Amino acid sequence: MGARAAARWPARACLLAGLAILGGCADVPQDRDPAVCTELFEQYNRLERQGQATRFNAASGSYILAPRLERQNVLLIQGGCLTRSRDLDGMEALAARLAPFEIARGGASIRPVPVQVGVVTGFTDEMRTTVFFRGRGYNSRGVGLEGLGRRILIGPFDDEAALEQAISVAREAGFISPFAAVNLRF
After folding, report:
1. Looking at residue 49, what is its pLDDT?
2. pLDDT tier at 54 (50, 70, 90 boundaries)?
3. What is the DSSP code string of 68-121?
4. Which is nearest to 179 in space by CA: 95, 130, 171?
5. What is the mean predicted confidence (pLDDT) over 76-83?
6. Cβ-proximal residues to 41 (8 Å cutoff; 6+ apart), any chain
7. Is 180 helix (H, G, I), strand (E, B) or coil?
């Protein structure tokens, strides 16, 4: 890494940290748009596939986001696309209402695909989410996203009925924009 790039990373890290703090502390606009959030998350996933990855800087002992991923993080935070703890407040009551629960089967067969239910900002919310989805019989997995939190995936699903049901359950649980993450591996 050149001297110019090395000089920029602390400013970028501070900007992202500040936005994450503001995003967690400030009220997110009430008009969070699920379609916009889905598109922003899909763009993030495409950038990851293109090799826009986080890199470890051994000299500083810190992680550096690729500039395009960094920008996508800002857009996701500004768009209110991260799932907050209070978004999930009704999840446990929903679990009780859904009991007993069976995963739907039927519809057209599809290539196995996970559902990206959303991104939570803390390990407690990841744990609550994992307990909720596994309690319904879904496989669940959390994956860290530098600067954002933990991406929650469930599935994979191989028929339309199960996929649509999973997206509906995730939305009802409080996630803003669950979607079929066709380009992610579970």
Report:
1. 85
2. confident
3. HHHHHHHHHHHTT-SBPGGGGTTHHHHHHHH-S------S-EEEEEEEEEEEES
4. 171
5. 96
6. 76, 81, 116, 119, 177, 179
7. strand
Residue 103's beta-bridge partner residues?
none
Is residue 82 within 8 Å of residue 41, measured between CB atoms? no
Q: What is the pTM of this model?
A: 0.80
Instruction: Tell me how far CA of residue 90 lies from CA of 20, 97, 136, 185, in angstroms.
Output: 24, 11, 15, 29
> CA-CA distances (angstroms) from residue 49 to 54, 99, 113?
12, 38, 16
HSE (side-chain half, CA atoms, 13 Å) at 49: 11
Q: What is the largest CA-CA distance in the chain?
A: 60
Six token digits for residue 82 = 């991260």
For residue 167, pLDDT over 90 is answered with yes
| CA pair distance 145, 141, nearest whole angstrom | 13
Provide the 3-class DSSP secondary structure of residue 122.
coil
Q: Summarize the confidence of residues 97-113 as an average pLDDT.
A: 95
